[in-house]
Amino acid sequence: MFSAGFGPGFGGGFGPGFGGFGPGAGGPGACGPGFGGGFGGGFGPGAGHHFFRGRIKRAAIAAAALLQEGPATAEQLSQRVSEITDGAFTPPVDKVEFVISLLAARGVATVEDGVATLTEFGEQLLAWRGVSSETVQAFLGEAGKFGDVIKLRKDLFELAGLARTIKFTGNDAQKADLKAAVATLSGAVAEAKKALYRTLADN
Question: Are 48 and 102 members of one domain?
Fold first, then answer.
């Protein structure tokens, strides 16, 4: 469906936040839990081991491809993603700034007064794998259709984290509130599952 430059599984999922630019930039799972399963083996033979890895790599390549449209600040790139996905994803500006800094450090882009510009080297790397602004926008447009599902997963993930924190460190009152919240949520989830299974069976 997409260019070979995306590699098998580029559409593996965005995860909480924007996948490519979500929470946790710079650490494990940096830039979020997913920008798809992979952009292929890298920018070309052997290149994948020397530039970006995993989720950071996917976010960086996407940002570089969007810079083919012209120089942009982190805020403008974030807005471009938001527009392409019809508001389903708006990567935090600080995460985009982090990705731009990686591009600049590796000569893929230059940054002057906060404005990133794709270099000739960056253009060559994208061309080597057949990745372009058009293919990235096509993928983002498709992924944007699943924004509500991804938001649901993000909210449930966040809720589970809160519950875990209270379970291990909360006081008696907090644990009582947690127990009540879990009971309410469990009932709502059970009803939602019944409704969804019912509609699947009906169709």
Answer: yes
Average pLDDT, the chain: 78
One domain, residues 97 and 194: no
Taking alpha carbons only, the member of 15, 40, 9, 45 closest to residue 154 is 15
Instruction: Name, in order, each residue with C-beta under 8 angstroms of 107's C-beta and a sequence gap of 6 or more.
Output: 119, 121, 122
Cα 51 to Cα 56: distance, rounded to the nearest angstrom: 10
Q: In three state form, how does the secondary structure of 147-187 look?
A: HHHHHHHHHHHHHHHHHHHHHHHCCHHHHHHHHHHHHHHHH
Residues 124 and 179 in one domain: no
Domain count, the chain: 2
Maximum Cα interatomic distance, the chain, rounded to a whole number of Å: 61
pLDDT digits over 88-130, tens only?
888 999 999 999 999 999 999 999 999 999 999 999 999 998 9
The reported pLDDT for the residue numbered 87 is 87
The answer on 168 and 80 residing in a single domain is: no
| Domain boundaries, position 183 | 151-202
Q: What is the pLDDT of residue 54?
A: 67
Whether residue 142 is found in the same domain as residue 155: no
What whole-number distance in Å separates Cα of residue 33 and Cα of residue 49? 20
* 160 lies in the same domain as 139: no
Question: Tell me: the pLDDT tens digits for 139-197?
Answer: 888 888 888 888 888 889 999 999 999 999 999 999 999 999 999 999 999 999 999 99
